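Example 423, ligand adenosine monophosphate.
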Amino acid sequence: MNILLLGSGGREHTFAWKITQSKLCTQLFTAPGNPGTAQFGININVEVTDFEGIKNLVLEKNVEMVVVGPEVPLVEGIYDFFLEDDQLKNIPVIGPSKNGAQLEGSKAFSKAFMIRHNIPTAAYKEFTSENLEEGLSYIEKQNIPIVLKADGLAAGKGVLICQSIEEAKEEFREMLSGKFGDASSKVVIEEFMDGIEFSVFVLTDGKDYKILPSAKDYKRIGEGDSGLNTGGMGAVSPPPFVTDDMMKMVEEKIIQPTIAGFQKDKIVYIGFVYIGLMVLKNGEIKVVEYNCRMGDPETEAVLPRLGNDIVELFSKTVNGELSTVNIQEDQRAAVTIILSSGGYPGDFEKGKVINGIDEINDSIVFHAGTKTENGKLITNGGRVLAVTSLHENWKEAIRISNKNAEKISFEGKYFRRDIGFDL
Ligand code: AMP
Ligand code: GLY
């Protein structure tokens, strides 16, 4: 079948790499794609939120399945757009309905969902400018640190961890007066959870589910988890501290109630659920966040460990046959290190020539923010490349990714040399 993949990052290069390993894939199209996805199919310059453009592309190229990488088209309702169109309604979209995507698109929605279905998460309250004063007095009664979250999508920047009540009150006012635009017209104030994070990824048809390899990502720009938040600077799969008992607890207390919640709330959900988790000091595990898609860079570490034919997995999900699938997990660890542009996540320059990828043969190099110009590969984003290595020993996988991250060169290249430092 012809498959259309939406997106243009390292996650999508990894999907393209994996999808085209399937005998069921005849031709892959990626919109808009990047030089990495172009190695596995045809890139088409249509933006992920241009639904009419996507419709034309699907009809013109006889696309029979659409795989959605990033959250924005999901939150904007691409699933529903297909369902409501007579020419598109029979073409499966891998990704939840607009309602389901609110698990990521609205923090208030996802918190209410968790409370309603008894899923462990931090205590919270939501406020708008209409009850600003109430919000301020709520803050005064909380312990520090205290967490403020913009309700809507804020490109990964909408979460603030405040170290004092004064700071929290100031940020709270700023958020409600548009610090993150519309996204912060509603603010969730949440109890701070102290612990270690990891993420699980679930593929579901809204009724049955399969758990994919888990991962831990490194969100901060600086070594030792310091400095600003980024989209993610590295990932380790599986996180070595996650035991079978922990996974059993996560499945019973979090994954099963989540899927049952979709049923009870009549949420149409065919796709990935990314569940960000916090393991507290007392051993409890709580949900930090849901995302309605796979993670980036987690995908670059998770999919190389997935033994299954991913197109077959998608087909079975769409056809209600997910329960017949056995997930095959490579026993080796995967470690991904992101190479970023100097200055990221602040201002950075693009257009720097990239060298050295061809010399690497013991890692997989996925493209994130790259572009080809006059036959040369150049940088085109904050996160430029993802270097993934597989090894029986996770420390060795780290060493190989580090070694190869060193070999690739472009002006201003930066990467964290301490991925896995806390494991
Ligand atoms: P989110 O967008 O909700 O995942 O938040 C981004 C990051 O902020 C998470 O990965 C955590 O590192 C941190 N974070 C969010 N909520 C909390 C919380 N309640 N307690 C501690 N850290 C949090
Ligand atoms: N790496 C975090 C995310 O994809 O949201």
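Summary: The two ends are 42 Å apart (CA to CA).
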